[in-house]
Specification:
The chain is built from eight helices and two strands, in the order H-H-E-E-H-H-H-H-H-H. By secondary structure, the chain is mainly alpha-helical.
């Protein structure tokens, strides 16, 4: 084997390795986004309660001033953390609510199959209904129910995370 052949084989091996790594990274990002979508839905009611009940002031005493008194020098970091958490939660939950509404309108236009997927998703995450019970209510087998939930999560994840998710689903 001459030097040129070794270089060509090395380049091919590197390209193949890079392609495998790229596919692995895309799958990992897609899996992370699906996991995050599941977590957002699982804790949806808690997050909304948090957003709806964040208290910044009571009368003339602001929550920030009250927290200032708690821990001296660490209170500023603590307060910033609470403000940031409340703001981020509000933004994310507003986005998730909007994407759920878009998914609902999409399901209405798409037909019964997509509407069933949405019902399965809502029953599982928002009503805490067991998969077995959802399957009975929908008059389908549990496996179909599980597949519907996965399809609904993929669609909702694409809506929540945008165009990158669509590219990942295609590849």
């Amino acid at each position: 084997m001459d030097k040129a052949e070794i270089i060509r084989l090395t380049v091919e091996a590197c390209k193949e390795y890079d392609q495998k790594q790229r596919i692995k990274n895309i799958k990992s990002r897609h899996d992370r986004r699906l996991r995050n979508t599941r977590l957002l839905l699982k804790h949806y009611n808690y997050f909304n309660t948090h957003v709806d009940n964040v208290i910044y002031s009571v009368g003339q005493i602001s929550a920030i001033d009250a927290l200032d008194e708690i821990d001296g020098e660490n209170s500023e970091m603590y307060i910033k953390s609470i403000k940031k958490s409340a703001s981020l939660t509000h933004v994310v939950m507003s986005h998730v609510k909007a994407m759920l509404e878009i998914y609902e309108s999409f399901a209405l236009r798409k037909g019964e199959s997509e509407q069933r997927k949405l019902r399965v998703l809502k029953a599982f995450y928002f009503e805490n209904t067991r998969m077995y019970d959802i399957a009975i209510n929908e008059n389908i087998v549990e496996r179909t129910c599980t597949r519907d939930l996965g399809d609904a999560l993929n669609t909702l994840s694409a809506l929540i995370f945008g165009i990158d998710s669509v590219h990942e689903m295609v590849e």
